[in-house]
Amino acid sequence: MEQERTFRAGIDIGTESVNIVVMNDARIIYSQTLVTEQAGPVAVKALLDQAAAEMKWPSGFVPPLVSTGIGKKTIPLALKTSTDMVCHAEGARWHFPEARTVIDIGASGSRVLRLSAMGRVEKFAVNAKCASGTGIYLRNMTQILESSFEEMSALSEGVSESTEVSNYCAVFAESEVISMIHSGESKERLAAGVFDAVVDRLMEQINRVGLNAPLVMTGGVARNQGLVRSLERRVGLRAMIPPEPEIVGALGAALMAGKEIEAPAKRLEVGDH
Amino acid sequence: MIFAGIDVGSRTTCALLLQDGQVLSHGLIGTGADSEATSRRAMDIALAESGVTDREVKGIMATGYGRVLVPFADQIISEISCHARGAHQLFPEARTVLDMGGQDCKAIRLDGDGNPLNFTMNDKCAAGTGRFLEVMAETLRLPLEEIGPLSLRSTEQIGINSFCTVFAQSEVSLLLRQGKTKEDILAGLHRALCVRILSLLNKVGIEEEFVITGGIAKNVGVVRVIEEKLGIVARLPRESQIVGALGAAILAEESR
């Protein structure tokens, strides 16, 4: 069909979830998140099948596709791969063109990007080696606090003095929080303390990169109001959150797919950093 | 005269009674949520075993992570001094001690009299402590005591890429799903752990005799990898988890 010619897709294969964004004419026309333990290619096929069914694509049609995320190399269908950094920067700027700092917290790592006025990544810091302060850290803490992410955010709301989680290591911090619960520490103050601990880790990266307003947060963890509040308090800036922060990486990849089609000569821009 | 040493670790507590340089008895139990009660219980076990009463004990030295939580101790001292002194008592030629417990790892260099010369320690990151192996044993659904011997039966070399305990846990789950054997995974984990141990040891420098203390000395797989990498034979105490308490008891006696 004629209209599908202008379709572009981006896929972000993370450690905990796989996201797809389909764009047409600079608009997001479809997006989906699959939280899965399946291997990248299996999850991507499921997502593409779902998209094809919902958008009534002719059989066998796959739009030009760019992949990103930890499993980006596992997708033979992709025109090319792009780095998380470029995709999160592009995706954040699509929502907020004036963005100068992007903080992305994923399941197993986080990154802070400083952008120039033109949107180039000027400086960045990445944590991918240590679980402290990552989405997995937060998820494990929700289990210990027997709360959902939303409940944990609600718990922390209005807490003026949080309980300090003094252990850096995710494993030791879990034991610390468990023993504090046993000794009667309030869940509200602990929830706030856990968010503050995640912000402590982010500050290490922010201090290396510098922080310019406007600030955008991406990645599913940005849905967490408690964390956003803690970060905003610490840096004294408002954070702008896209309506679906978890698809920003995939959105960036879809935007890169668009560039790839429109200007194949500009390949250098999306090389691995 | 009888003296006592109590080592309250993050996972294990040991109380030990010493008379004229000879160990009378010891009590070794898991550290509970209440360190005070745990230390009392370990002490009671040691007393009961040798038929000694509280009043016969002339001095009590507490050490370890929970040393300030032993209300009946007369003195406290850092576990570095105790491990050095305890290792020296068992192996008078000891010059390097590796002590790995439930939540930390220490490399200590000591002089010919059992005094620590210098040391390095990791208690910030679970990777490189006994906790790493505890988490992995849990992930593999194996009792901690079994992982050492099992790892020796490995036939395929597997590399573990994650440094972090949390990420390594996911990596292990993935390896299991890929059909890798527990034996091979364990051997890979032990090699990964040894990388952290060796970097600690290299900071203080290794001189023979080399003694391994703490719970890790009971893991034959880890001991074997360390020995291979260093090219030296490690000295192992018969009961590796009492060395800190032994050192504490000796230091209690010497401080009289």
Lay out the secondary structure.
The complex is a heterodimer of chains A (about 270) and B (about 260).
Chain A: E1 7-13, E2 17-24, E3 27-35, H1 40-55, E4 65-68, E5 80-81, H2 84-95, E6 101-105, E7 110-115, E8 121-127, H3 135-144, H4 149-156, H5 170-182, H6 187-209, E9 215-218, H7 225-235, E10 239-240, H8 248-262
Parallel strand pairs in A: 1-4, 4-5, 6-9, 9-10
Antiparallel strand pairs in A: 1-2, 2-3, 6-7, 7-8
Chain B: E1 2-8, E2 12-19, E3 22-30, H1 35-50, E4 57-63, E5 75-76, H2 79-90, E6 96-100, E7 105-110, E8 116-122, H3 130-139, H4 144-151, H5 165-177, H6 182-204, E9 210-213, H7 220-230, E10 234-235, H8 243-254
Parallel strand pairs in B: 1-4, 4-5, 6-9, 9-10
Antiparallel strand pairs in B: 1-2, 2-3, 6-7, 7-8
Helix pairs in contact in B: 2-8, 3-5, 4-6, 6-7
Structure notes:
- The complex is a heterodimer of chains A (273) and B (256).
- Helix content of chain A is 40%, strand content 20%.
- Chain A is α/β, with parallel strands linked by helices.
- Chain A has 2 domains: 2-95 and 243-270, ATPase, nucleotide binding domain (Nucleotidyltransferase, domain 5); 135-240, Nucleotidyltransferase, domain 5.
- A 5-stranded mixed β-sheet of chain A has the order 3-2-1-4-5. A 5-stranded mixed β-sheet of chain A has the order 8-7-6-9-10, with helices on both faces.
- In chain A, strand 9 (215-218), helix 7 and strand 10 form a beta-alpha-beta unit.
- In chain A, helix 3 runs parallel beside helix 5.
- The radius of gyration of chain A is 19 Å and the shape is globular.
- In chain A, 49% of the residues are buried.
- The model of chain A is unreliable at 265-273 (pLDDT under 50).
- Chain B has helices at 35-50, 79-90, 130-139, 144-151, 165-177, 182-204, 220-230, 243-254; strands spanning 2-8, 12-19, 22-30, 57-63, 75-76, 96-100, 105-110, 116-122, 210-213, 234-235.
- Chain B is an alpha/beta fold.
- In chain B, a hairpin with a 5-residue loop joins strand 7 (105-110) and strand 8 (116-122).
- In chain B, the strands form 2 sheets. A 5-stranded mixed β-sheet of chain B has the order 3-2-1-4-5. Chain B has a 5-stranded mixed β-sheet with strand order 8-7-6-9-10.
- Helix content of chain B is 41%, strand content 22%.
- Chain B has a single domain (2-124, 196-254), classed as 2-Layer Sandwich (Nucleotidyltransferase, domain 5), CATH 3.30.420.
- Chain B contains 8 helices and 10 strands.
- The model of chain B has no long low-confidence stretch (mean pLDDT 94).
- The chains are: A alpha/beta (273), B alpha/beta (256).
- Chains A and B meet through helix 3 and helix 5 of A and helix 5 of B.
